[in-house]
What we know:
By secondary structure, the protein is of the alpha/beta class. It has helices spanning 41-44, 129-136, 138-149, 165-176, 188-196, 211-218, 234-243, 296-304, 322-330, and strands spanning 2-8, 11-16, 26-36, 57-64, 76-79, 82-83, 103-104, 112-116, 120-122, 157-161, 180-185, 201-204, 226-229, 249-252, 284-287, 313-318, 336-340.
Amino acid sequence: MRGIRFLGNSTLGMTDLPDPEVGPGDMLVRVKASAICGSEMETFIPPGGLEGNPGHEVMGVVEDPNGSKRFKKGDRVGVATLQGCGECFWCRQGKQDFCKKASVLKNAHSEYVVGKEIWMQPVPDDITDPLAVMLAGDGMGVPYGASVRSGVKPGDITAVFGVGPVGQGMTMIQTFLGARVIAIDVNPKALAFAEEMGAWKTINANETRDIRSAIWDMTDGFGPNVSFDACGVQEMFNVAMETTIPGGTVMTVAHGTHGIDNVRERLSFHVDLQKGEFWGRNLCVRGNWACHFGDYTDQISMIRNGLQAERLITAEYSFEDAAEAYRRFAEGERGKTILIHS
Ligand SMILES: [Zn+2]
Ligand SMILES: [Zn+2]
């Protein structure tokens, strides 16, 4: 089958990849749309390349149902990014991302993908192909899961550190949930797009000498109720830990080596309300990684309740123009980029 191969140094080629093997319990899907994920830049940009591609956000139509009782050939399906064993405690709750045997889908930027039938979602008629990719993969699932599980509620102020695609999604969803969002980034274009997604205020981290004071000024000295680290930069994590309101939550959704151990020293810098270690301020520090399979229908409900999730998609390219799509994405395309397969 035709597919993308990462060649290293921010280049790719269209090549013949091995046809995926359909094993017991698997289903073969002809890809209709796949999304570029920020995490792919970890292998796209450096030298080295890959045998194929790390694409993992995908939807399509069933090519071979392989005995499925739920799906028939031609049905539109979303394929879950993480595929669990299907039998363990976590899989049975629809939290397959916690499954010890979970594997990440790959080679989604290809003609076909194979996944376990139990990790396929039916796509309703009112959900377009590009939107289905966002819902079934982690494009919308991660910002949805982080926003909901952190407990963001109407009247909250939240801070989103880093408005790449995940940060933009969180800005959009948290605004929808009734929070006022402070978006923080170094990229003026990203901040302008965050305003389109509903951000209440923005902070350019390059141009603002004292980000902590800027955040406290915006929040009457209290700090945001919930802060989200979506950039994985230790200094920004420190700022989040130091400025979040006592009793609030800091959630990290970023890949990175940042962590709490490096924050401890700096917490003594606080004044007044912010004074004290994070335990002394009753801070809740949480992580959020992938999305649960079981979140899919809740995301669709949110869309049917008025969330205009398609606004997060800022670029659609034909699959054949993938090289251009990746080039633009690596340069900092504002929202999600979708490849449309013919
Ligand atoms: Zn992803
Ligand atoms: Zn499992």
